[in-house]
Amino acid sequence: MTDIALIEAAARRLSGHVRRTPLLNAPLLDRLAGRRIFVKAECLQVTGSFKARGGWSAVSALSPDARARGVIAYSSGNHAQGVAYAAAAHGAPCVILMPSNAPAVKIANTRAYGAEVVLYDRATEDRDALGARLAEGRELTLIKPYDDPQVIAGQGTVGLEIAEQVAEAGVTAADVLVCCGGGGLSSGVALSLEVHAPRLRVRTAEPQDFDDMARSLISGTRERNASTTGSICDAILTPSPGELTFPILSRLAGPGAVVTDDRALQAMALAFMHLRIVLEPGGAVALAAALFADDLPDTVIAVASGGNVDPETFALALDCFA
Amino acid sequence: MTDIALIEAAARRLSGHVRRTPLLNAPLLDRLAGRRIFVKAECLQVTGSFKARGGWSAVSALSPDARARGVIAYSSGNHAQGVAYAAAAHGAPCVILMPSNAPAVKIANTRAYGAEVVLYDRATEDRDALGARLAEGRELTLIKPYDDPQVIAGQGTVGLEIAEQVAEAGVTAADVLVCCGGGGLSSGVALSLEVHAPRLRVRTAEPQDFDDMARSLISGTRERNASTTGSICDAILTPSPGELTFPILSRLAGPGAVVTDDRALQAMALAFMHLRIVLEPGGAVALAAALFADDLPDTVIAVASGGNVDPETFALALDCFA
């Protein structure tokens, strides 16, 4: 199980290999939103998303034998790049199972990190079953995107940094909005804040119609999405909350926020204009909630979880100014 | 005169008000370039460029009386925002003289910081004379964009941070490419590195046909550009090297690099893709040189000096992928 000790141990392994990302803010953005917004810019992370943390945490926790056999991961792209980066740095062979409709940039970058990429059809194939079969045939260790204690621990290091950075900024209480797919990042951050900044409350942010976590937090049981395609927020379209992540969030998280694809694009546009960072749609939903939700306190931290976006999709965000 | 003591004093005044920007890198960018590239991301600075440093340094160095009367600056936009931001925080009235063809976003943002904006025609009016006239009439202190010892001192704090950050990264020798208009940033950084990282050499980067500094460094005298319009790199189209900045660079800088507008756009595109930061053309020429010049050492630091760019211009950079 992931606890604060596992997160702090992961932070020590990550040090020097994964970036301590800045906590950004902009006076003009605050004015627009009518509240103070801090953005934890994980898009500036080594592989363009927080997933480098979980990948490094998991690969660095393997035994030398397991590392030598190699790892496998299934991912819409960001977890893929995180694991591929960590595996290459540890000299571990790496197979990545990616949906064939993932952004081209994510597929290309995953290959560039040295991983072997296997494509599958997200609508018709079961990635878990396919991944398990590949892992078994080659004795690879499967690194799941969120339901893995070491992955959650790695993502939780974002929370350790937020706790330090808000203290430097003089913030004592706030909602911390986190882009949420399976809940690895949200649950890890929640565990860190519980200990190091207990007056900061995690809230998940999800795309409309893919709000399994928000609904699950209300019902108290793991709800499923009707589909895992149909939003531009490709990075966070997961079938349901994780088995390990949901109990953590059920205990620690506030109500989930839900945003439309249009709001995600607007958040990308405002991040471009006022923070000069590049966000992908799924990495912008927390900022979208911070900007546009109406049930928020005066100070909000939004975790901008990733920035691996095709130029065509980014152009859609720029069209918000037209 | 600016010296290391003035820069270190500025650093103390800036602390807590101006951001210590990250030094970014990306394995895939290094592979493309065939060398190791670190990017000092001043586009993530509070006002979207390093100019917040010089603005804060100059305004905070004024006497209480001078502050109360107010300040004036002339600028294509980034210096404007830097001074406006600093003036507002110090409660000083602020008039900004901007070319009427400056990017709309820069004009809008300067107004949003609370400054009074006066527009002039860059092709037909002499901004120095106009600025001096306005300053005199209202007893405002003119804060020049580069030929001011406190402004150079503020920009020089970028060099203090680079010296610390490259040491953390284990870099001992490198060329430091700096986007160059009048030379305020380049000369400040050169003074800091001379003391704190003497094996790092500053080199200016300029747009083709606006390479007054590169030519001046060769001839040993301050050369002029034929025009101050005609490149997309609006932020760094100045008539000639500064009176204060040129002697510093003449003593400390290596040969100047010159890049085309197309290369600047390509650098913006690659920064979007691999670093997930937003650069403006004039803020990307150092990175363009780092990526495409052929007379560079194995390790290069590029100062990405600003990210205040209109969506239309950014779309031109994204077209590089088409």
The greatest interface here is: A-B, 35 and 35 residues
The strands making up the biggest β-sheet of chain A line up spatially as: 1-2-10-7-8-9
* The first-level CATH class name of the largest domain in chain A: Alpha Beta
What separation lies between the terminal Cα atoms of chain A? 49 Å
Order of helices and strands of chain A: HEHEHHEHEHEHEHEHEHHEHHEH
User: Into which percent range does the helicity of residues of chain A fall?
Assistant: 40-55%
What's the structural domain tally of chain A?
2
> How would the global form of chain A be characterised?
globular
Biggest sheet architecture of chain A: 6 strands, mixed
Provide structural commentary.
- 2 copies of one chain form a homodimer.
- Chain A is α/β, with parallel strands linked by helices and 322 residues long.
- Chain A is built from 14 helices and 10 strands.
- Chain A folds into 2 domains: 4-50 and 149-321, Rossmann fold, CATH 3.40.50; 52-142, Rossmann fold (3-Layer(aba) Sandwich), CATH 3.40.50.1100.
- The first copy, chain A, has a 6-stranded mixed sheet with strand order 1-2-10-7-8-9, with helices on both faces. A 4-stranded parallel sheet of chain A has the order 5-4-3-6, sandwiched between helices.
- In chain A, β3, α5 (78-89) and β4 form a beta-alpha-beta unit.
- The radius of gyration of chain A is 18 Å and the shape is globular.
- The termini of chain A are far apart.
- At the A-B interface, α2, α6, α12 and α14 of A face α2, α6, α12 and α14 of B.
